[in-house]
Amino acid sequence: MGVWDAFRSAWSFMTPDWFGMSLLHTVSGGLVWWAWILLGLDLVVKIIAVGYVPSQRKPSSAMAWLLAIFLLPFIGIALFMLIGSPYINRRRHKIQNSANEMLRTISRDEPDVPEGYTLTPELRSLVSLNRQLTAMPATTGTVVAVHSDYEGSITRMAEAVDTAQDYVNVQIYITAWDDTTDVFFRSLERAVERGVTVRYMFDHVGSWKYPGYRTLGKRLDEIGVKWLVMLPLQPWRWRFRRPDLRNHRKLLVIDGHTGFMGSQNMIDSSYLMKGNIREGRHWIDNMAEVTGPVVALLNSVFAVDWFTECGEELPLLTPSESTEWLSSRPDMLQIIPSGPGFTTEPNLRLFTSIVHHAKKSLVLVSPYFIPDESLLEAITTAAYRGVKVELFVSEKADQPLIEHAQSSYYAELLRAGVRIRRFPYPAVLHSKFMIADHEVVCTGSSNMDMRSFGLNYEITLMSAEGSLLEKMTALAGEYREACTELTSEEWDTRARSRRYIDNVARLTSALQ
């Protein structure tokens, strides 16, 4: 047997047999022409993927994508081209970079930490990190309340809108006009009737599956609200982008003096799904109400997103221009926006830094806990060095794939000594916050998962030693009372099939 015959026989043995015929079967002693083409394309795709996919990507994500491409070359590369790129279009990057430079310019005279506040070197380094990554300095503000009653939070936002005299800016990921949210939209209607300019943004893909979406725009038009969909997926209008990107922010700004931000969407707590209503499933959230200079920075995040979607410029106020509505001893607060427009993952770096900062206690609250390697290592390391680490999650997540991916981390967390507290079903614990050593707290829209770190536009509020810290600590205490703790003994009894599905879901969570 010649060398070529041996090579051909080896390939025929190693390649799969499709529909009863080897892909590389021979005709008249040679490979058929289409087999040569497929073999060549397959080889080219894999060679290119090995050199291209790992660029600007975490090793776990790169390996997951390479595995998909090597096992299913043409399907894998098609998916990668559709949702695998870590970048969005150049226009959005350019706008974000320009906005950052503008914010740096108008806040250049603002110190990293407002005068009169003394921070430890570690806490000061967190503030400096956030400013370096996002151009946002720390400023002051009064935390009026942390609203954790779902319907009560919506009612309070409506009451605040009723005080508006100039403008109302709303940016909420999922929006539906239903019986629960009607009180809020009626307040917007009254504001427009008073001559107030009302702007509203909601995520296109995030909102379109909920009842009433098809008529939502028409209803907003009828009450005079200026509205936009964020990250529209409308190829027929030449508006196309990665279909898995989301603007996940939730914020409300009233006249530059009052703001709300947190985890709550503008929709009934059942999310209007028949299955949820039947089972009594409802969402648990929190929204922080703030006043003072921090509201100007909150509004600047809205202004950048509004300009990105429609090209209309809104004024960017510096924190010093909004000094009203402050208590006698306001908090030191810092806004941290993040998302695909940034290339440095500000929320991930902040969360990881806070975990490393913890010396005594660490509270983590997230509905979707699918950390990357750096955050997972930081959390388990903290537990190993004696930090009391508590992770609050839902007993049952609202999305099965996320439920399995999240569960795949429990064994190593429990082994490290992390206490996993699960909020009982049918509630979905949707709040998102972190507290370290009763010294620093952050809360907002960002989950502790790879989607929030790399694919979602998010917003976070950080504070040190103030009323926000006290209020969030009290809220964590309420959650602790309601939760049950998962033990290693209980977790070790799970079925082998469950372990397999968890691990598969963990692998697919890295495909981004």
TrEMBL record:
Q: Which residues cross the membrane?
A: 31-53, 65-88
Pfam families in alphabetical order: PLDc_2, PLDc_N
Membrane topology note: Multi-pass membrane protein
Report keywords, A-Z: Cell membrane, Lipid biosynthesis, Lipid metabolism, Membrane, Phospholipid biosynthesis, Phospholipid metabolism, Repeat, Transferase, Transmembrane, Transmembrane helix
EC nos = 2.7.8.-
Give the first-level EC class, as a single word. transferase
Gene3D superfamilies membership? Endonuclease Chain A (3.30.870.10)
Tell me where it resides: Cell membrane
Q: Which organism is it from?
A: Corynebacterium variabile
Q: In Gene Ontology terms, what is a biological process of this protein?
A: cardiolipin biosynthetic process
Q: Which GO terms describe its cellular component?
A: plasma membrane
Q: What is this protein identified as?
A: Cardiolipin synthase
Which GO molecular-function terms appear in the entry? cardiolipin synthase activity
Domain of life the protein comes from? Bacteria
Ranges where the PLD phosphodiesterase domain occurs: 243-270, 425-452
> PANTHER family from the entry?
CARDIOLIPIN SYNTHASE (PTHR21248), PHOSPHOLIPASE D (PTHR21248:SF22)
